[in-house]
Design a protein that fits this description.
The structure is a homodimer of 189-residue chains. The first copy, chain A, has 189 residues and is α+β, with helices and mostly antiparallel strands. Chain A contains 9 helices and 8 strands. In chain A, strand 4 and strand 5 form a beta hairpin. Chain A is globular, with a radius of gyration of 17 Å. Chains A and B meet through helix 3 and helix 5 of A and helix 3 and helix 5 of B. Chain A binds a DNA duplex (30 and 30 nucleotides) through helix 9. Chains A, B: Pfam families: cNMP_binding. Chains A, B: InterPro entries: cNMP-bd_dom (IPR000595), cNMP-bd_dom_sf (IPR018490), RmlC-like_jellyroll (IPR014710).
DNA sequence: GTAAAACGTTGACATAGGACAACCTTTTTT
DNA sequence: AAAAAAGGTTGTCCTATGTCAACGTTTTAC
């Protein structure tokens, strides 16, 4: 099993080596090109991805074609369309690599079987859900009732990696502003 | 055990009557007045609440004193500050009853012990986390890049109960607009 | 039942940030 | 290496929504 995933399991579920060896075959490594899609809006999401290197984003497109980035994940994190994975309904979001990205892929059927049968995966899943929830909540909480300057400052303080590694266009769509506004704001700082 | 909670357990965890009788003593009934607080910002949240009748909201207050309602729950739902419950850190949100409200209260220690030891509660918790996550995601997704008229229409379509049972002031703070704007928009519909 | 407070509506005005456009720079393609 | 495409910056203008204010109505408190 890849050391990054091992670390994740040890840290969040106290899993021992024996269990990890048993789980290892469920995770298949694959590398995607920069800008390549792991999932497109309208498809049913069938996999959970653990990022070994690179990064990906979840984004939606509204009726005017404007992109809205909702989550950006780097190496060492799980990322997928949980809403589609959980409900089995078509995703309303896309998953796209922002850099050349290597992931470990587990199929949802295996994943949910293991959630039921294997306590360490049950714990990991609980952890993933809890932190996904908390992250989402924090983002709503921190963004609601703030102007765009405050949002950029928030990003600088809380997720500086996003500002340094990700293009302005994507950052703007993550902050809910236009690239123009972001550009103007950056010159103010 | 109260029939509403029973129904919840049967529906989401297939729990049988024997288990429900065992779980029953952990849930204590209590009634709160309209506007009464179950939790104040800065306190550590120690309980999970299941609403039997009435409704409550979670809201935050920003530095200018502006309220921001993030979740409104009616009878038949669990509600608490999960972020504080999970992390054990002080909550940044308030929980307040919007009507005279009767809840079943379970202490977080009991709750998390049961999550570990009792599969039906484990399943319930998973379900709560999953739906909390999905609800939050949907709200972000549906609100981002929409103007306030679209938000009101969204509410009318997706949560009409909120518009009919809850005061304009609270609804406005849920939509992230001022009561003035909401008032103007309502006259347009 | 009366006073006080909170809430809701509407108007006039101010402003943050989007739309459009031009231009420059960087990246990608061949 | 040249051409094309994408991304970034900056200017002007416009619109949606917040702010301030006045006033009427409903709810709460004594």
């Amino acid at each position: 099993m890849h050391p990054l995933l091992k670390e994740y399991f040890k840290f969040h579920a106290n899993a021992d080596d024996k269990i990890l060896e048993r789980l290892s075959p469920y995770f298949v490594e694959k590398t995607f090109k920069r800008n390549e899609y792991l999932l497109r809006e309208g498809e049913v999401c069938k996999h959970n991805y653990f990022i070994i290197s690179g990064c990906m984003r979840l984004f939606t497109t509204n009726k005017e074609g404007i992109e809205n980035t909702r989550y950006i994940a780097f190496e060492g994190k799980f990322g997928t369309s949980f809403t589609s994975l959980i409900t089995g309904l078509p995703a309303f979001e896309n998953i796209q690599c922002l850099e050349k990205t290597t992931v470990l892929i587990i199929h949802k059927d295996d994943f949910y079987d293991l959630v039921e049968s294997e306590p360490s995966i049950n714990k990991i899943y609980r952890h993933i859900l809890e932190s996904a929830y908390i992250t989402t909540q924090r983002r709503i909480y921190d963004f609601q009732g703030t102007d765009s300057l405050e949002r950029v400052q928030w990003l600088l303080k809380n997720q500086p990696k996003i500002l340094s590694r990700i293009s302005n266009k994507v950052v703007a769509s993550y902050l809910g502003i236009t690239p123009h506004t972001l550009s103007r704001l950056k010159s103010k700082l």
